[in-house]
Amino acid sequence: MSIYNDIERVLVSQDEIAAICERLGKQITADYQGKERPILLGLLKGCVPFMSDLSKHIDLPIEIEYMDVSSYHGNITSSGDVKIRKDMNTSVMDRDILIAEDIVDTGKTLDTIVKLLRHRGAKSVEVVTLLDKPAGRVIPFTPKYIGTVVPKEFVVGYGLDYNELYRNIPYVGVLKPEIYKK
């Protein structure tokens, strides 16, 4: 059985993702000119494909860091309980931080992480996201850099998962409801 059979439809194609990464990378390059060694911070695991492709289009010396945070815990909706499973190895004091995220949905996880980084003394904290799902927000949150806006549907692929599966699909697709309503 193919994982592709579980996809109802393609929402963001490989070509669209490539164009988004190029566009956002150029915008970030322009905006971060003159900043000393900004940190591109990925929130694991979903960020990996996006952060990898995005970073290829950022023409600046950047430092790359990761945090493993979650508020989904195997569910299809955020629990609101943000857990940090792996913290950064680098101090953020007086540093410009750009959080790379696969999707901004409820806003809870990012709100918590942004506040934490500011508390730790970051000079600036911004968010770049491949996908923005404003219809899913439970708290006000607007990323500075948005790849594309998606409807309130359950999406997987290109790093996004359901029960740790489907991350390896090279595009973003809508998961068939019968898969997660079992």
UniProtKB/TrEMBL annotation:
The keyword Transferase applies. Its cofactor is Mg(2+). It is found in: Cytoplasm. Residues 14-162 form the Phosphoribosyltransferase domain. It catalyses: IMP + diphosphate = hypoxanthine + 5-phospho-alpha-D-ribose 1-diphosphate; GMP + diphosphate = guanine + 5-phospho-alpha-D-ribose 1-diphosphate. Its EC number is 2.4.2.8. Keywords: Cytoplasm, Glycosyltransferase, Magnesium, Metal-binding, Nucleotide-binding, Purine salvage, Transferase. Pfam families: Pribosyltran. Signal peptide: none annotated. It is an enzyme of class 2 (transferase). Pathway: Purine metabolism; IMP biosynthesis via salvage pathway; IMP from hypoxanthine: step 1/1; Purine metabolism; GMP biosynthesis via salvage pathway; GMP from guanine: step 1/1. This is Hypoxanthine phosphoribosyltransferase. It comes from Paracholeplasma manati. The lineage of its organism: Bacteria, Bacillati, Mycoplasmatota, Mollicutes, Acholeplasmatales. The gene is hpt.
